[in-house]
Write a structure and sequence with these properties.
The structure is a single chain. This protein is of the alpha/beta class and about 180 residues long. It has a 6-stranded mixed β-sheet, with helices on both faces. A hairpin with a 2-residue loop joins strand 5 and strand 6. Helix 3 packs across helix 7. It is globular, with a radius of gyration of 15 Å. The site of uracil has 13 residues, from helix 3. Iron/sulfur cluster binds next to helix 4.
Length: about 180
């Protein structure tokens, strides 16, 4: 099925039963933010706070992301934020290949509808499922072109919670992304 609007995607996601994660979630977590954003941020999967509220990146990792964005000069409301899978895996385990496949259509449609200038990949799960990559710590901070899309690679905001060095990396990456966009 193809989607013609983000509302349509949201409506499907909130009632979706396409994979096993629907059995353990409290709430599905559709993407959220500015529908005309020049950047889409893509994380891994909802965590506990997101499962509770139905909104992406509202817990500890989300706070790190918001601050890094603000320090780079953009507000969180001005961008669109989503995840590879829209339901929380039990105990925050990494989503399986099957779960990612089941959920793929939603993410692809979000990108197709918003048509952002840059797709910002946060962490290895998004890196692997979107670009087939596997070492985000090494590749972070880079713009990558593939199949007519422009991507930017950075670490997952949850990784920076107890690690000042990684927090600096995330903050620097966000500045690089925001400055890079101005030149497009
Ligand atoms: N981690 C993610 O990958 N996504 C969220 O929405 C929250 C935490
Ligand atoms: Fe549907 Fe995705 Fe949730 Fe699985 S993770 S139930 S495919 S919305």
């Amino acid at each position: 099925m193809t989607f013609s609007s983000l509302e349509e995607i949201r409506n499907q996601v909130v009632t979706c039963t396409k994979c096993e994660l629907c059995k353990t979630r409290k709430n599905s977590v559709p993407g959220k933010g500015n529908h005309n954003s020049e950047i889409i941020f893509i994380g891994e999967a909802p965590g506990r706070s997101e499962d509770k509220t139905g909104e992406p990146f509202v817990g500890a990792a989300g706070k790190k992301l918001s601050t890094a964005l603000e320090n780079a000069g953009i507000s969180r409301e001005s961008v669109y934020i989503t995840n590879v899978v829209k339901c929380r895996p039990p105990n925050n385990r990494v989503p399986t290949q099957e779960e990612k496949e089941s959920c793929k259509k939603y993410l692809e449609s979000e990108i197709a509808i918003i048509k952002p200038k840059v797709i910002c990949i946060m962490g290895n799960t998004a890196y692997q499922s979107i670009l087939g990559g596997n070492n985000i710590t090494k590749e972070r901070g880079k713009f990558v072109k593939k199949d007519g899309n422009l991507y930017f690679l950075t670490i997952h905001p949850a990784a920076v919670i107890y690690n000042q060095k990684l927090l600096d990396s995330l903050e620097n990456d966000m500045k690089k992304l925001v400055n890079g966009i101005k030149e497009l």
